[in-house]
Specification:
alpha+beta, OB fold (Dihydrolipoamide Acetyltransferase, E2P), five-stranded antiparallel β-sheet
């Protein structure tokens, strides 16, 4: 048996979709059927897809795990380019209200309410929420600093480029995107295949936003995929 949904939410606005999508997210737990979901809305796809197939004029242009295809040039060049990563709740720092997450061998901290250890949490990290540092920051409000390699540089517009990164975590890397200015790229003398520290700027739960002293806005959306 197969559950096939062909743009079934296309006539709904975003608020209505947000009421229905959580039920679709939990559906595999109640009804263990493979699901094919066809949509032109990448925001829907990011919520619960594991495998993404992109098509144009009836031809498959890209296919693979969601976060891998999100690094494809067609999606990485979008203004709202982002990568979704699935993490596991490892604990909670009650003193500061921070959820401790495991991403393979890496550790992440995000503000939020306590969640059951072992629960899976999907994070959406926008390219514009990641910056690059050639050295580990010492005195900074940034919580998460991860080593990464630049795999590719894609032109975005006259002022910015999108970097395709691989976060070094365990034997297999984790895809990530960073959007920085061309000026920063040249000033830092960045090169392909060198290791740098991408800095996810103080992630916040959905709907929250922090404007830092530098002109950057941070927002990280989380999806608890457990009941």
């Amino acid at each position: 048996m197969l559950l096939f949904l062909d743009d079934s939410l296309i006539v709904l606005d975003r608020s209505a979709k947000c009421e229905i999508l959580p039920f679709l997210e939990r559906l595999p737990e109640k009804l263990p059927l493979p699901m094919i979901y066809i949509s032109q809305d990448i925001a829907d796809i990011e919520r619960f897809s594991d495998h993404l197939v992109m098509m144009k004029d009836g031809v498959v242009t890209a296919a693979g795990p969601l976060n891998v295809v999100q690094n494809d040039a067609a999606l990485a060049r979008r203004g709202e380019a982002a990568v979704c990563i699935d993490t596991v709740v490892g604990g909670y720092d009650g003193r500061y209200g921070l959820i401790m997450l495991r991403l393979k061998e890496a550790r992440l901290l995000i503000p939020g309410v306590p969640l059951r250890p072992g629960a899976q949490l999907r994070l959406r990290i926008a390219a514009g929420d990641v910056s690059i540092a050639c050295e580990r920051p010492r005195a900074s409000s940034i919580l998460n600093v991860l080593p990464a390699r630049i795999k590719a540089s894609l032109p975005f517009d006259e002022a910015e480029v999108t970097l395709v990164l691989t976060v070094e975590s365990g034997r297999s890397g984790v895809p990530l995107l960073a959007r920085i200015t061309r000026g920063s790229f040249d000033a830092l003398r960045l090169r392909m295949e060198r290791t740098y520290s991408p800095r996810s700027l103080a992630p916040f739960r959905r709907g929250c936003r922090a404007v830092l002293a530098t002109p950057a806005t941070t927002r990280m959306r989380t999806f608890d995929t457990m009941p």
